[in-house]
Design brief:
Layout: E1 2-6, H1 10-21, E2 25-29, H2 32-41, E3 43-47, E4 50-54, E5 57-59, E6 70-73, H3 80-87, E7 96-99, H4 129-133, E8 139-142, E9 147-152, E10 155-160, E11 166-167, H5 175-186, H6 197-218, H7 222-227, H8 229-249, H9 257-265, H10 273-279, H11 286-300, H12 305-326
Parallel strand pairs: 1-2, 1-6, 2-5, 3-10, 6-7, 7-8
Antiparallel strand pairs: 3-4, 8-11, 9-10
Helix pairs in contact: 6-8, 6-10, 6-11, 6-12, 8-11, 11-12
């Protein structure tokens, strides 16, 4: 069993440590100082008040590791199209591509039963690059619930969570998804197979589409965004628009809005991924978490006025950060 985690950042590194400890033949693809630190000193994981150091094969050249059984893509969703071609050498006839990123994945409407089907979304997959090179038929969905953060090159801190629900786009319990569930389970993760993985992805997105951009705009941690009366009302308005859109495209949400926001507040003073990226001067996941919802809403004919305002603001924030960096 050969597994490549493509993108050994906070989530990818966390997955890699678990897989390596379970004896899986796993290779991490990373780059820069983070890669060099892992190669020199191993990957350090701070978890449950302890530090674990695990030596894992890692490289910045996927061509060196050959065809894999599973390729787990743990990159920021808006960066995948840029490097999709470098994933191709890892793909054989039976390779599965596991999308473990926030937001809507490239295959989301592959064989979908609703009014939008077999559509590649420009906001997350420009020119259908991922659809063509990776193939929607290879895809296994994965929802990422753990909160982790790179605190130094080669060092990852785990804040909470071990859950990675999995699912086939068509809802079947295939041998490949059940095998992956078993592998992740043996690696210390909770990876149930869901028949409604699209619903699970939308449920995670439902909170992210408001909490993340508002966090980056206000510099507030998630607990403050979800409990402050003003920002919670903005979240409610955006989530209401997204729920109307979900109803239109056949997505079912198994929890209500207040419970979703209360769950986010319970995370405590956690910095959302957009805020982490903003503070580090990195590009933010604007299109995978917000822009894509606007694109789907346009396709479905659903108005999203509050989301449109927040999308404009967070795009302006990102542009101003870029100008300040080069000014």
């Amino acid at each position: 069993m050969k597994v490549c985690v493509f993108g050994a950042g906070a989530i990818g590194g966390f997955l890699g440590v678990g897989l390596a400890r379970a004896g899986v033949d796993v290779t991490l693809v990373a780059r820069g100082e983070h890669l060099r630190a892992m190669q020199a000193h191993g990957l350090r994981l701070l978890i449950d008040g302890k530090e674990e150091v695990v030596r894992i094969a890692c490289t910045d050249d996927p061509r060196k590791i050959g065809v894999q059984d599973y390729v787990i893509i743990a990159l920021k969703a808006h960066t995948i199209s840029e490097i999709a071609e470098t994933i191709v050498p890892l793909l054989g006839p039976d390779t599965s591509v596991v999308t473990a990123s926030n937001g809507i994945p490239y295959w989301y409407f592959y064989r979908a039963a609703g009014p939008i089907t077999n559509v590649s979304l420009e906001s997350i997959d420009p020119n259908g690059i991922q659809w063509r090179l990776l193939g929607p038929e290879r895809a296994i969905g994965c929802v990422v619930f753990p909160a982790t953060e790179i605190i130094a090159p080669g060092v990852i801190r785990h804040d909470h969570g071990r859950k990675f629900p999995l699912g086939e786009p068509d809802g079947t319990r295939s041998k490949r998804v059940e095998r992956l569930s078993e592998i992740l389970g043996a690696s210390g993760f909770d990876a149930p197979v869901r028949e409604d993985i699209r619903d699970e992805i939308w449920l995670k997105l439902w909170g992210n589409l408001c909490l993340n951009p508002i966090s980056a705009l206000t510099l507030a941690t998630v607990d403050r965004v979800a409990t402050d009366p003003g920002t919670r009302d903005i979240c409610r308005a955006m989530m209401s628009e997204a729920q109307t859109l979900a109803d239109r495209i056949g997505i079912h949400l198994r929890v209500d809005m207040e419970r979703r926001l209360d769950g986010a507040a319970a995370l405590g003073a956690h910095k959302m991924s957009m805020l982490q990226d903003l503070l580090r001067g990195r590009s933010m996941e604007i299109d995978p978490l917000v822009g894509v919802v606007k694109e789907i809403a346009t396709l479905a004919g659903v108005a999203t006025p509050v989301l449109d305002i927040v999308l404009a603001l967070i795009r302006q924030r990102a542009e101003n950060v870029h100008l300040n960096q080069i000014g």
